């Protein structure tokens, strides 16, 4: 993970800004305290080092002792971490640390449910670029913790020719040809398709990965047979926990799920503080 301190700095500035009025008014200076992070529901832990960094960013002397590492499956009531430091700084870091930790745990937990739903098939669960602005690196990391795989990180590290690119280029064949002449040999080309005719054209154009977008299951299965291993097959659109198993059983290689990052529910985690 990179750029974490910048994310944390921005989040703290957004929350504290010119000062935590409540803490400044109520909490006496130099008041040592201990705190505990507690899971309030079953979850997969993701982002423990990020939560720790929020507090040490505010004060390097804060002691943060994690009781579990990322990927741990926790039950309601489990102790996640213990902290010790100045009470004012612990209070100032509380909401930012919880916001990031709860969101990352939510993504990891939801991802694991999708991965479990397709167990025994060849399909791999991948994320998308439908992430919270500014938090992509954290959310994509949480997907990996949950057992999923990252799709491209951004527009800069993969070629994905979608319907609007096809319209602007004047067709699939022309778009693939232009991409092939532009990119280095180390990059693959993926094409989004909606019909069997588009799948055929993408194959003939030499696409490395073919996305089957919003196809029904019979059409998807037909496309998998047609492609016959000549390209990786990705399914996208209309994917949820009720549909993902049926999609996987068509024989696709990859299932991309935007919900992993744009619709994951934040897990319930609390911080309990005690003055020393």
What is the H-and-E element order?
Answer: HHEEHEEEHEHEHHEHEHEHEHE
Q: Which class best fits the helix and strand makeup? A: alpha/beta
Give the biggest beta sheet: 6 strands, parallel
Question: What does the average pLDDT come to?
Answer: 96
Report low-confidence residues grouped into runs of 5 or more: none
Number of strands: 12
Strand fraction equals 15-25%
Q: Which radius of gyration do the C-alpha atoms yield?
A: 23 Å
Helix proportion of residues, in percent? 40-55%
Tally of helical runs: 11
Distance between the termini: 35 Å
| Overall morphology | elongated
The largest sheet has its strands arranged as 6-11-10-9-8-7
Write up this protein.
By secondary structure, the protein is of the alpha/beta class. Helices cover 43% and strands 20% of the residues. Helix 1 (4-16) packs across helix 4 (87-117). It is elongated.
SSE topology:
Layout: H1 4-16, H2 21-26, E1 32-39, E2 43-44, H3 48-58, E3 63-66, E4 73-74, E5 79-86, H4 87-117, E6 124-126, H5 136-145, E7 159-161, H6 163-169, H7 172-182, E8 189-193, H8 196-205, E9 209-213, H9 217-227, E10 232-236, H10 244-248, E11 254-256, H11 259-262, E12 269-275
Helix pairs in contact: 1-3, 1-4, 3-4, 4-5, 7-8, 8-9
List keywords for this structure.
single chain; 276 residues; alpha/beta; 6-stranded parallel beta sheet; 4-stranded antiparallel beta sheet; 11 helices; 43% helix
In short:
With 276 residues, the protein is of the alpha/beta class.
């Amino acid at each position: 993970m990179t750029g974490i301190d910048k994310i944390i700095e921005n989040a703290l500035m957004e929350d504290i800004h010119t000062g935590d009025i409540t803490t400044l008014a109520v909490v006496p200076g130099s008041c040592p305290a201990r705190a505990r992070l507690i899971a309030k529901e079953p979850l997969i832990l993701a982002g423990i080092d990020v939560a720790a960094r929020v507090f040490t960013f505010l004060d390097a002397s804060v002691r943060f002792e994690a009781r579990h590492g990322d990927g741990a499956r926790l039950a309601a009531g489990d102790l996640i971490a213990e902290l010790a430091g100045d009470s004012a700084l612990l209070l100032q870091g509380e909401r930012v640390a919880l916001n990031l930790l709860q969101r990352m745990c939510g993504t990891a937990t939801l991802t694991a449910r999708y991965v479990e739903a397709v167990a025994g098939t060849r399909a791999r669960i991948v994320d998308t670029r439908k992430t919270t602005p500014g938090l992509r690196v954290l959310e994509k990391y949480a997907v990996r913790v949950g057992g999923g795989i990252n799709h491209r990180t951004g527009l800069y590290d993969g070629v994905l020719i979608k319907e609007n690119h096809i319209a602007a280029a004047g067709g699939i064949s022309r778009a693939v040809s232009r991409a092939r002449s532009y990119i280095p040999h180390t990059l693959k080309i993926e094409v989004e398709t909606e019909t069997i005719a588009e799948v055929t054209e993408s194959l003939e154009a030499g696409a490395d990965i073919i996305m089957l977008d919003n196809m029904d299951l019979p059409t998807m299965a037909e496309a998998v047979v047609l492609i016959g291993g000549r390209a990786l097959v990705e399914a996208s659109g209309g994917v949820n926990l009720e549909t993902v198993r049926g999609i996987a059983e068509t024989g696709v290689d990859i299932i991309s799920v935007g919900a992993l990052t744009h619709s994951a529910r934040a897990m319930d985690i609390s911080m309990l503080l005690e003055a020393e």
